[in-house]
Amino acid sequence: MSHAYITHQPLVNRQSKIIATRLSLHLGAAGSMKVAVATLDALAEAWPQQQKPAFIDCAGSPGSSPVDPGLLDWIVPDNATLELPSAALLGARGGDFVGALLARRPALCLKFDQGAAQAVGTGVPFRFIAFDAKIYTPEQLRVLAAKTRPYGIGLAFNVGTAEDFRACLDAGMNAAASWFFKAPAGAPAKTLNPGQAQIVRVINLVRRNADAKEIEAALKQDVALSYKLLRYINSAGFGLSCEIQSFRHAVSILGYEKLNKWLSLLLATASKDPMAPALMHTALARARLMELLGQGLVDKQEHDNLFITGAFSLLDTLLGVSMDKALEAMHLPEAIGDALLGNGGLYAPFLDLALACEGSDGQAVAGQAGLLGISADHFNSAQLEALAFADAMEL
C-alpha cells in the first residue's frame, strides 16, 4: 500500500510562538482512510509524544476522499487532534462515526461550515472550532467566535498576511495557522546591525579555525552571545551527555566543524522581527530536516552544511536585509550560498523539499522527494523528527 506525503503548517499564538502543528495528509482522489491510517501508523516510532500538539488534517488536498469512521483504526496519540468537517458526522456513515467518537473520545477540531450547528448537536465534544480566514471577514469571525465559544476554542486557518493574523486575533481567535510570518516585514536594510555583525565575525573566526583564545575573546565582547551559545549547546536538541561549561570546553568536546553548525543558529537570534520565535522554529525545523534527508545521499561531511543551509534559509527575513547582503560578509562554502541565492547546486534539492513541505501541494512534495529517491514514510518520519527537534531547541 502506497502511503501519503505529509505537509505541515504552524499554529501561531499571540506571543508569536508556534504552539502546535497541522499535519496535512495528501491522499488525493484515489486515497482512502486506509491509506491515511497506514501513513499515520508508519509514524509510530517518530511520533513526538512529549512535544507540541499536532492537528491531523486528512483532507489536505482537493478531491481527497471524505473523512469516515475508518480513520479511528489509527490509535490516536494523546497529543493529536483530529480535524473533522461537519459532513463526516452528518453523512450516510455519520451515525457510526458519532458512536465511535463518543466511545473513543479523541481530541477533535470541528472545521466550521454550514453544517456546524448540526454537528455540535450530535453531542460529540469538540476541543477546538476552526474557521477558514479566506471565507469569513474579521467582523464575521468576531460574531462566530462569540457564538461558538461554549463549544470549543476558536482557531483561524488559512491566514494570508500579518495584518490578517492580527485581525483574526482581535476578532477573538486564540491562534492562527499559516505561514504569513515568512514574508519580510518591510524594506530590507542596507547593512547588518552591530550585534549581527559581531556574530558574523565570530562565525568567520570559527570557520577559519582561529585560535580558541581569539574566538573566546570575541565572544566575551558580547556576554549575551556567549550565554546563548552555551544554552544552545546544552539544550535537549543537542543531546550531549555532559554539560558544556565554556567555549574552550565546547571546542574540546565538539571540534570546530560541529561548533560552527551551532554558532550559525546564533545569527538568527539577533533578529528584531516580532515574529522571530516562529521564524526561528521554522529555520530549525528546515535545518534538521535537510540534515536528516541528506543521510545516505551525500557524504557525511556535507551533513553539517545541509543543516547550516536550512538554518540560514530565513536569514533575510530574520535580519531584515537581502539574502545576498546577509551572506556577503560570511565565508561560506559555495554550495550553501548557491542554494540560498537560488543558484542550484548540491544542497538546493534538499532545500526545495524542505520548502515544499511547508506548502499545500502534495504532488509537489512527492515530485521533489522522488527526485531524491526519498519514500513517503522516510520523508514523513524525518519531518516529524525535525519538528520535534525545533520544539526541543526553543530557548
Written description of the protein model:
- Helix content is 48%, strand content 11%.
- By secondary structure, it is an alpha/beta fold.
- It has 2 domains: 6-182, TIM Barrel, CATH 3.20.20; 194-393, Hypothetical protein af1432.
- An 8-stranded mixed beta barrel has the order 1-2-3-4-5-6-7-8, surrounded by 4 helices.
- The protein starts with 5 loop residues before the first strand and ends with a helix.
What is the element layout, followed by pairings?
Elements: E1 6-12, E2 18-25, H1 33-41, E3 54-57, E4 80-85, H2 87-90, H3 94-104, E5 107-111, H4 116-120, E6 128-132, H5 138-148, E7 153-157, H6 162-170, E8 175-177, H7 194-207, H8 212-220, H9 223-233, H10 247-269, H11 276-294, H12 303-312, H13 315-319, H14 323-328, H15 334-340, H16 348-356, H17 362-372, H18 376-393
Helix pairs in contact: 7-8, 7-10, 9-10, 10-12, 11-12, 11-16, 11-18, 12-15, 16-17
